Amino acid sequence: MTESDSRGLPLKTWPMLKEVNNNYNFQIAAAINEGKPIVIASGMCPQQLQGAFDVVWVTGEWYGSICGFSRDVGLCETAERCGFPHETCSYARMTIGSMIEDRGFLGKYPKPVAVLGTEGLCNVQAKWFEALARYHNVPFFVLDSAPIPSQILPEWWGEDAVKDSVKYYAKQLENFIDFLEWVTGQKPNEEKLIDAVITMDRNERLWDELMRLWRAKPSPIAGRSLFTFENLIVSLPTSHAASRVLEAIIEELNDRIAKGISGIPNETIRLLWQAQPGWYVLGIIRYFESQGANFVTTPYLELWGSHFRYDWCKEATPDWFREFNKPNNFAECFWEISKSIIAQMTRPRLEAGVKAIKQMALEAEIDGGVWHAVRGCKGVSYGELAEREALRELGIPGLILEGSPADPRDFSEGPALRQIRIFIEQVKRIKKRRKRNC
After folding, report:
1. Is the dihedral of CA 124, 140, 405, 277 positive or negative?
2. Which of 61, 237, 270, 348 lies 20 to 30 Å from 54, alpha-carbon distance?
3. Residue 65: which residues within 8 A CB-CB, separation 6 or more?
């Protein structure tokens, strides 16, 4: 096989991934038709809890993203006509529109027996999921996460504050189990919950390894392809099937790296992506690839693993907080779950985020960064200008594209392509100048 033949080969793991994702869709569709209990939850809710009950768990952000991939703008328009402003998260508008029209990519909308929201990273999620619960007239539960202050005087805050935050969240998980027992009429299964907690930890570590391999030079996988693996860690993190796919793609990428097989045919520029992509316009990433530019790292995908999350709060937390211990009962499950959630709540986020993105940029040896200024998602877009400036200090240019994850009306492809062409030429010039000066 020549070097040119070995570049851009399709992934062997792709059919395996497709089968797992399709089975998940079929499971939801079957639950809709057969009346099996469905719980709709925020993506920031602890997925492990579903393991204690025989329910089908639907992640709201995932559902909204697939509606966006389908470019079903009518769902957003329906939500807006019913009083949900255009400035609201596009995932929320897609989901609410699908609920009101009782249609979507699965046929009917998955009517839940309960809805679970969160307060913490996203200031929209609690009200978004409350709207779903009110419309269906079903019970609603909110999990509130206490942030860890990382820049407070040590005599005021320290290990006790971290422990109190974990205890606070763990108590809520105990209450939530009682809530689901009441809603479903089922007794929680301790053995299955333990398995879900252990499996999710394994999958998060596999995800970390996948992120590490993605950064290889040249990268063995196209960034656009890697985004399609996200559902494994967002909607199926407690699934053994997800473990098998992650193990398979890791093995395949290791093999591709050993054989020099790259993700795109002509990787000459390595880029960082920040925030969710526009699922309706993944083709824009294909244009980057046609110019020899591959995305090789992103904080957005890294956050779903364990390394980035715990590294984020390393300076503000004790060693025991970042260590996983296999649980043996409900209480130990709640403790381990709580640590993983609280790890994302370090404050102030901007300083920690800037530090993390600089480290990622250096480790991945990127030539430029692209930020998606996501309308309606302050939790992701917050701090993007500071992050871009931080990379500029390292001599790494950046580009900001405006849009949203699920609403095609928020993105203008023509002007974006012009910006991208100019940006790529800028990156190439800076890279050439850097090589001459070496």
Report:
1. positive
2. 61
3. 91, 276, 279, 405, 406
Question: CA quadruple 12, 17, 23, 29: dihedral positive or negative?
Answer: negative
Question: What's the Rg (C-alpha) of the chain?
Answer: 22
Q: Give the residue from 173, 87, 179 showing the smallest Cα distance to 133.
A: 179
Burial class of residue 42 (count of CB atoms within 10 Å of its CB; 0-12, 13-18, 19+): buried
Cα dihedral: 269, 275, 281, 282 (round 10):
50
| Maximum pairwise Cα distance, the chain | 70
Give, for all 438 residues of the chain, the pLDDT tens digit: 333 334 557 899 999 999 999 999 999 999 999 989 999 999 889 999 999 999 999 999 999 999 999 899 999 999 999 999 998 899 999 999 999 999 998 889 999 999 999 887 677 788 899 999 999 999 999 999 877 766 554 455 678 888 998 999 999 999 999 999 999 999 999 999 999 999 999 999 999 999 999 999 999 999 988 888 999 999 999 999 999 999 999 999 999 999 999 999 889 999 999 988 888 877 788 899 999 999 999 988 998 998 888 887 777 788 999 999 999 999 999 999 999 998 887 665 677 778 888 999 999 999 999 999 887 776 677 778 889 999 999 999 999 999 889 999 999 888 999 999 999 999 999 998 888 876
Query: Are 391 and 358 in contact, with CB atoms under 8 Å apart?
Result: yes
Contacts for 95 with CB less than 8 Å, ≥ 6 apart: 60, 63, 64, 67, 128, 132
Burial track 128-155 (b if 16+ CB lie within 10 A, e otherwise): bbebbbeebebebbbbebbbbbbeeeee
Compute the CA torsion angle 132, 24, 209, 215 (nearest 10 deg). -80
Contact 410, 402 (CB under 8 A): yes
Q: β-strand 140-144 against 148-149: which pairing, if any?
A: unpaired
Q: Within the chain, how many helices (H) and strands (E) appear?
A: 18, 10
Lookup result for tokens 């591709």: 256
Topology (CATH level 3) of domain 264-437: Rossmann fold (3.40.50)
Token representation of residue 340: 């993983």
